[in-house]
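Notes for week 9. Today we move from apo structures to complexes. The key idea is that a small molecule is not decoration. When we ask for a structure prediction with zinc ion present, the ligand SMILES becomes part of the input, just like the chain. The input block below holds both the sequence and the ligand string. Read it once before you look at the output, and try to guess where the molecule might sit.
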Amino acid sequence: MVTQEDSSRLEFQRTWGPRRSRSTTISSSSMRRPGATILALACTLPGCGRNFDGPRYKTSHTTITTSFEEPLCAGDLANIERHIEQVEQLLGTSLEKDIEIFLWSGLDAPRTPCPYGRDACFVRATNRVYSDFGSLEHELTHAVVEELGTPRPFFDEGVAVATEPRTLRFPEISPSSQIDLPRDEISYQAGGFFVRWLLETHGVDKWQSLHSGRGNRAAFQDIYGASFDGMTEEYLLSAPWVYAPLLKSPAPGLTENEEGWREIVTLDCSQEDTFGRLDRRSTLRRLEISESGFFDFWTTADGLSLRRLLGTNLTSESETRAALSGDVPLWDELSPAGSTKGIPGGAIQTVWLTTGEYEVAIIDIDRDDDEVVVTVLPHRGPVLFPPTNSDL
Ligand SMILES: [Zn+2]
């Protein structure tokens, strides 16, 4: 959920603020940044980042120190605990020691002790997570599965990506080209998709054995009774096109009425449905569209951000194409990790939605609106199409 909200925030930056692509945040822990390597080497002590002097928070399993003064909301803290508990339950492991989280905004990465020039990581020696909002669940998963062991990076990063709160697209990269590579050369997305497939098709027990051991080709063959390359063949033939998020955190449905949807929404940082990001607060609602069509959105909030949700895996090209249709596709060229559509407050905006579920992020910039109205109505009458060349 943090990432979902984060993508909304990024969409708003895209629409009304400085440009920054979603994929930059998603892959921040995997990107090689030569310039940052020098900084990281100069900063080898955990916690030496100069900017982690914001407020501190305590949850059941973590303490959190931020690099920013603006408060986190109860929803942010609840998301952290929910992710830890869901990963523990799903993967049959448990967090042995409390985690210290050092969280920054995503706009200004402070110095961290993360290796390979990355700016987000889990440091095993100190049980510390350094992350922005976009990589937080990924790093928390590393911490939760740490007690099992540290297999080859392809599998170690794979399980962290597999539990990120987002859909996973089938990657073009074959696992066979990845298993022997060092951490700074692997494709995180290929690892995530393959580990998800292993979990779904061969179960958690075998995955646990894999993660507990060396996680190399020989160990793989012992555990799965098939060579890694043989299993890769099976994977390439049988994997789905898209995996729905593995861990669920459903938002409440937007209140329906006879004509459509209308709700007076309360934003309250002390409530677990409210999230804080620097100067913004937001909350999430779910919108189920049973029949494709144009819909009019209107809000007294500063803006909305729409995102398509996926409840089940997509196993065919036609299902995938359907999920990529409409004004709010599952992803697009600009946002391959998941796209969002921003709607500014105060004006009706007409949006073409195809059948499916959507998340509506309701956004309060400057944290100055405690109650806002959101309405969504099926559009009546024609819709003005953009002019064609012959009109100009
Ligand atoms: Zn990782």
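Residues 13 and 19 are 6 Å apart (CA to CA).
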